[in-house]
């Protein structure tokens, strides 16, 4: 599966150049053209990495990053034409994972992106789903002060659905994922686990997160 990179750059020419460069390098890209509620669009994008320009029409990129970091740990690389230590220090203090000045060398930019993604892969036990943070090691779902502890089976099911979010996952695929677990899971037990997982997602503020597709499987919205 390709890593999705969100490009937030108000210069249309640079935005197109960045998109082409990244897609030729094997990434999937998503470009913002509406700069209202940028932080909200970042949260909804489900991107694996964000390229964020500091100088945007409606709000400074550093302020956008500061708001984004309140709820999301998606890696962000700041792009700027400024070249001062103060700007770099501010960006890093607000939670940037890297800082690149324009004009950038395409190869250097790709190397920096790759380095950030590899670094974040080491912490892949933490995943974001809408406003939830899932700790796959501890088996917890957290939304602010609300926290639910998942059983091992529930976490296996949730992780598989999350890995294929927006796609139908069949009951056979879920049973296969559970096959190596310590306890045997039959078809009825799978239904019980799905029901309990739904309840816990509801308690965390996400009712109807799992959609049942009759004779097909389940889909995580």
Quickly list its features.
about 220 residues, alpha/beta, Rossmann fold, Arc Repressor Mutant, subunit A, 2 domains, 5-stranded parallel β-sheet, 4-stranded antiparallel β-sheet, about 40% helix
Write the layout of secondary structure elements.
Blueprint: E1 4-8, H1 12-24, E2 28-31, H2 38-45, E3 49-53, H3 61-68, E4 76-80, H4 85-93, E5 98-101, H5 106-121, E6 126-129, E7 132-135, E8 140-143, E9 146-149, H6 152-163, E10 168-169, H7 171-178, H8 187-203, E11 210-213, E12 217-220
Parallel strand pairs: 1-2, 1-3, 3-4, 4-5
Antiparallel strand pairs: 6-7, 7-8, 8-9, 10-12, 11-12
Structure overview:
The chain has 221 residues and is an alpha/beta fold. It has two domains: 4-121, Rossmann fold; 126-220, Winged helix-like DNA-binding domain superfamily/Winged helix DNA-binding domain (Arc Repressor Mutant, subunit A, Orthogonal Bundle). The chain has eight helices and twelve strands. It has helices spanning 12-24, 38-45, 61-68, 85-93, 106-121, 152-163, 171-178, 187-203, and strands at 4-8, 28-31, 49-53, 76-80, 98-101, 126-129, 132-135, 140-143, 146-149, 168-169, 210-213, 217-220. The radius of gyration is 20 Å and the shape is elongated. The two termini are 18 Å apart.
Assembly state (oligomeric): single chain
CATH class of the largest domain: Alpha Beta
SSE topology string: EHEHEHEHEHEEEEHEHHEE
SS content category: alpha/beta
Beta-strand percentage range: 15-25%
- The whole-angstrom Rg is 20 Å
Note the overall shape: elongated
Q: Write the CATH fold name of the largest domain.
A: Rossmann fold
Into which percent range does the helicity of residues fall? 40-55%
Query: What is the arithmetic mean of pLDDT?
Result: 87
CATH homologous superfamily title of the largest domain: Response regulator
**Corresponding CATH architecture of the largest domain:** 3-Layer(aba) Sandwich
For the biggest sheet, the summary is: 5 strands, parallel
Give the low-confidence spans. none
